[in-house]
Write a structure and sequence with these properties.
The structure is a single chain. By secondary structure, this protein is an alpha+beta fold. The chain starts with 66 loop residues before the first helix and ends with a helix. Helix 5 (314-323) packs across helix 6. The chain has a seven-stranded antiparallel sheet with strand order 3-2-6-9-10-5-4. Strands 13, 14, 15, 16, 17 and 18 form a six-stranded antiparallel sheet that branches. The chain has six helices and 18 strands. It has helices at residues 67-76, 120-124, 141-146, 229-236, 314-323, 325-341; strands at 80-81, 83-89, 92-98, 101-105, 110-116, 130-135, 160-163, 166-169, 174-186, 189-201, 207-210, 213-216, 240-244, 249-251, 259-272, 275-279, 284-285, 300-313.
Length: 343
């Protein structure tokens, strides 16, 4: 996704690119292998007095097997957003994915992060250092994977923006810069309490993490995408391919439109009041309008880079529904379920 196009409140300071931390020539703190036990930072806050006694963990009925796995899975039921935490050492940036982020206080503005004691990040943070928090948007799973050490060639290099001398990941949904004011022992994690110096947010939907998987809010009006492939594929088979260049308008809010479109390749930006999201290959556009052509388009959609789409006219759609009424029935059921959920 082109991060530079997100509508975020402007930063207070300069914008620039920072090189990632290199494996060679990195400060000693970076030379930490995952799996190696590292002591937590020395500078603990005064609130920590002594390590709590280790007590047995009782698990509910049905949770047999490895207790650590059951405990982890239990915690995984708590849905969170996903952040990339960043910090800078000299001219080098280090980032890591974290969902253990929470708001603590509005006045003074405080947030808390929890870092595995084996993570490099923990060795870089101490009282007085700043860290950035970039709250990821629903489609930024690649960035989350990258900063969790799951790098694939397909993932583009992230770019950073410097605010309060702290790197922030470009294109995120919200940004914070905080200075560590206390750090605490947290078992196999270290807790860092940060006083927030900078905060801003843009429009969009957050990436969620739940049950060990990425998820996203599904209140967007998907209709055809809810159909099983066996019913959707014959409809899409009647589509015609169309290509767009960077910035080309694909749909305009309010204008008449009676086509359903599938993104085959590339990325499009969907904007309407209160919504600004990117859609990629495999996602559908114009699902509502093709069923209600008199109502006009419900969003502006533009191409971000070269885009290839499949356009299915309303006429072709009706032909497909006549050929297989099961698809028409399934659509009716999707819409009926939506009405049931509407307060
Ligand atoms: P590394 O593992 O060395 O770095 C992380 C990755 O980021 C590497 O692939 C590295 O190449 C890349 N990277 C770092 N800096 C840059 C840069 N400047 N440019 C480009 N790439 C860069 N762990 C926790 O401790 N707490 C949590 O709350 C937490 N939540 C998580 C939530 C999710 C959804 C996931 C997937 C993982 C989470 N983790 C969490 C695990 C954590 O993200 C990984 O263990 C991570 O690898 C720890 O990073 P590290 O500091 O040890 O550095």
């Amino acid at each position: 996704m082109s991060s530079s196009k997100r509508r975020l409140r402007p930063p207070l300071r300069v914008t620039g690119r920072i090189p990632p931390v290199e494996a060679s020539g990195a400060p000693r703190e970076f030379e930490v292998a995952i799996g190696e036990a590292i002591p937590a930072p020395e500078a603990f806050g005064a609130s920590f007095e002594e390590m709590p006694a280790s007590e047995g963990l009782e698990l509910g009925a049905g949770l047999e097997g490895d207790p650590a796995v059951s405990f982890r899975r239990t915690l995984g039921m708590f849905a969170t957003g996903v952040t990339v935490l960043t910090t800078r050492v000299a001219e080098q940036v280090h980032g890591m994915t974290a969902n253990a982020f929470m708001s603590v206080s509005l006045s003074p503005p405080l947030v808390l992060i929890s870092i595995d004691r084996r993570a490099k990040m923990g060795a870089l943070l101490h009282e007085g250092t700043r860290f950035g928090v970039s709250v990821l948007e629903a489609r930024q799973t690649d960035l989350s994977d990258r900063f969790a050490g799951r790098i694939s060639d397909a993932v583009p290099e992230p770019t950073f923006e410097i605010v309060h001398e702290t790197p922030l990941v470009e294109g995120a949904l919200a940004h914070l810069v905080a200075r560590v004011v206390r750090s605490y022992w947290g078992g196999d994690h270290s807790l860092f309490l940060g006083q927030v110096e900078f905060a801003r947010y843009g429009e969009g939907r957050p990436l969620l993490f739940h049950g060990g998987r990425y998820e996203r809010l599904t209140e967007d009006p998907r209709v055809f995408s809810s159909l099983p492939a066996e019913l959707l594929d014959p409809i899409l088979a009647l589509g015609r391919e169309r290509s767009y260049g960077d910035g080309d308008v694909i749909m305009t809010l309010g204008e008449p439109g009676d086509e359903l479109m599938l993104v085959l390749e590339g990325s499009v930006r969907v904007r309407k009041p209160g919504l600004d999201v990117a859609l990629g290959a495999g996602e559908l556009m114009g699902e509502i309008e093709v069923l209600d052509p008199g109502g006009g388009r419900i969003a502006d959609i533009t191409a971000e880079g070269p885009v290839r789409c499949l356009a299915v006219s309303r006429e072709s759609l009706l032909t497909a529904l006549e050929a297989d009424p099961r698809a028409a029935i399934a659509l009716t059921e999707v819409l009926a379920a939506r009405f049931r959920r509407t307060p």
